[in-house]
Design goal:
11 strands; alpha+beta; single chain; two-stranded antiparallel ribbon
């Protein structure tokens, strides 16, 4: 007999991550790129460059499975430098790490006893989402996009993380169109492209 909540669980082994920017070598802050960024320390880096170039704007991919939760997970997430992921929610419920003494999010650089608690998630109305003060945990939308690169050897997926609402909307919308057209999305040859689009800044309404 299968083990409930274990035998039916499927994990997609990850072969590597592709980035949408680089990290400033002096200040450590992320910087946006205008192309996909391959990890130079990966064993398949040379092969990736041979197939797609050093600054690719297009990847030939396959979606591995039909379950959106497996290949395009998307949640509100909050991180800090000491504990990593401290809160993950879907707009209704969240799993949050809290300081046992205070019941609040653990403070950066202050290590103490913590535990995970399930609690309501307010999404964009959450004070943590609205918090823009430097050094404090901030919440934002994150999509973990997982796909196959069929021209690269190995049994597993590659991953790109994005916090761009426009990118998340674009991927979700394209996925729906593909499913409507073909009745499925997995194992259909697709192109993942890096494109510049004009959007309005949510803070001042100006186009960028």
């Amino acid at each position: 007999m299968p083990i409930k909540d274990l035998s039916e669980t499927v994990r997609l082994p990850r072969l590597g991550k592709i980035h949408l920017g680089t990290r400033d070598p002096e200040r450590g802050f992320p910087r946006k790129a205008d192309h996909f960024v391959f990890p130079k320390d990966h064993s398949d880096y040379t092969r990736l460059v041979e197939l797609f170039g050093e600054k690719p704007k297009e990847l030939r991919i396959l979606i591995p499975v039909e379950d959106d939760e497996q290949w395009a997970t998307q949640y509100y997430k909050s991180y800090n430098q000491t504990y990593g992921l401290v809160c993950k929610g879907d707009g209704e419920m969240a799993l949050r790490m809290v300081d046992i003494k205070t019941g609040e999010l653990p403070v950066k650089d202050k290590v103490g006893a913590v535990e995970l608690r399930e609690m309501p998630c307010s999404g964009k109305d959450c004070p943590i989402y609205k918090n823009k003060e430097k050094g404090k945990a901030q919440c934002h939308e994150v999509m973990n996009l997982k796909f196959l690169l069929p021209e690269i050897a190995g049994l597993g997926v590659w991953q790109i993380d994005t916090g761009s609402i426009n990118s998340i909307l674009n991927i979700n919308s394209c996925a729906k169109i593909i499913k409507r057209a073909f009745g499925r999305i997995s194992l259909i040859p697709l192109k993942l492209t890096f494109e510049a689009i004009q959007v309005n800044n949510p803070e001042d309404g100006k186009k960028q």
